[in-house]
Amino acid sequence: MALLVNILLILLGLFLLKIILIALFFFKEIRAAQKRDPAAKGFLEVLFLYQGLHALIAHRIAHALYKMHFFFLARYLSQLSRWATGIEIHPGAKIGRSFFIDHGMGVVIGETAIIGDNVLLYQGVSLGGTSLEKGKRHPTIGNNVVIGAGAKVLGNITVGDDSYIGANAVVIQDVPPNSTVVGVPGRITKQDGKKIETSLDHIHTLDPIKQSVDELEKRIKNLENKG
Ligand SMILES: CC(C)(COP(=O)(O)OP(=O)(O)OC[C@H]1O[C@@H](n2cnc3c(N)ncnc32)[C@H](O)[C@@H]1OP(=O)(O)O)[C@@H](O)C(=O)NCCC(=O)NCCS
Does the CB atom of residue 180 touch ligand 1 within 6 A? Predict the structure, then answer.
């Protein structure tokens, strides 16, 4: 009986130690989740119940294994994490501090993706590749970027610091810093806090079809006004 109690106490001690270590090492990430999810009620709730945090913890270990060339183990851990959280992060991806994935289900982050500090992803985001080449084929995301639910950022492109990618956008070209991008394919609607008039702007627009339609609409309105 005494032996059983001792074993239970040791297991409890190990569990508490694990929780304390995670809380210490992932303090910034837990705080980021609390700051960026108005529904988060407290530190312990994020620590125990947020899959985005759990996927990141697994990724930090998998990435360390990947860097030591334990590719199978690294991938095995990332697949286990995918099974448990619904979030697939390739162990090769480089992710900065204060990273937060809200809700998480369906997020995919490719092998050569690079993510800066203080980035927020919502569910369904893909940071994917567009080629079968083995080199850098996934996006580089700057600091303080938010990527909305369901958005796809594809290829070896760069999303500049402080940018916002709208929900369900498909981004296939570089995004300058401090921009808001929406639509398919993604077009810049705001830069440095100023709204971009895409029908007049020929530098920032990422959607030539929308630009042509906007111009045609204007010409039709002009003709209607004349008639
Ligand atoms: C893009 C976003 C950040 C809005 O940015 P904003 O600068 O405030 O943009 P506005 O609301 O002023 O909209 C600007 C234009 O983009 C359009 N727009 C906004 N979001 C869009 C989106 N996701 N897809 C397509 N068009 C969008 C608006 O209709 C508007 O069009 P208009 O100028 O022709 O009227 C926001 O709409 C968004 O998509 N956030 C993602 C949030 C999210 O994923 N939450 C998940 C919670 S679970």
Answer: yes
Q: From the CB of 182, is ligand 1 less than 6 Å away?
A: yes
Q: Whose CA is nearest to atom 15 of ligand 1?
A: 189
Model confidence pLDDT, tens digit, residues 10-53: 999 888 888 888 888 888 899 999 999 999 988 889 989 999 99
Secondary structure of the chain in HEC code, one letter for each residue: CHHHHHHHHHHHHHHHHHHHHHHHHCHHHHHHHHHHCCCCCCHHHHHHHCHHHHHHHHHHHHHHHHHCCCHHHHHHHHHHHHHHHCCEECCCCEECCCCEECCCCCCEECCCCEECCCCEECCCCEEECCCCCCCCCCCEECCCCEECCCCEEECCCEECCCCEECCCCEECCCECCCEEEECCCCEEEEECCEECCCCCCCCCCCCHHHHHHHHHHHHHHHHHHHC
Instruction: Please provide the CATH number assigned to the domain covering 22-212.
Output: 2.160.10.10
Q: Give the residue whose CA is nearest to atom 42 of ligand 1.
A: 148
Query: 10 CA distance to ligand 1 centroid (A)?
Result: 52
